[in-house]
Amino acid sequence: MPKNLEASIEIAASPAQVWSVLTDLGRISEFSPTTRKMIALGGVRTGTFTLNINKDGWKIWPTTSRIVRFEPNQVFAFQMNENRTVWSYELEPTATGTRVTESRVVAPKGVPAPVRGMINVALGGEQQFEANLVSGMRETLARVKAAAER
Q1: How many domains does the chain have?
Q2: What CATH number corresponds to the domain at position 33?
Q3: How far apart are CA 18 and CA 104, in angstroms?
Q4: What is the pLDDT of residues 25-70, one digit of tens each?
């Protein structure tokens, strides 16, 4: 059964600086090792749909999502339409900057069987896929940190 996943990082920048990096969807490929594009179909705000292009090695696939939380300098979250997971970035001010927590939360109904089948066939199975997701989260957060601290 798919698990909820989480990774965090401390960034020596204000929540506003980090927010401006995280919500600049045109820069997603600079940060994410998997997401090559995230195109907002309208302004970046709660309710906006996005078209996403993902790549892992030779495998390329599209996904879609909807922004479900957009609270400036606090929370940016989107729900993947294909698997119902919610990805979020929560920003918390600290004495030295901002703590950012990236998470993937699985819907109570779980991931649909066809998506789980695709993960098992094309992406190495759930355990490997989720390990890769956590690794990707850490890589994304490290890249966001580098950009926000420049």
Answers
A1: 1
A2: 3.30.530.20
A3: 19
A4: 999 999 999 999 999 999 999 999 999 999 988 989 999 999 999 9
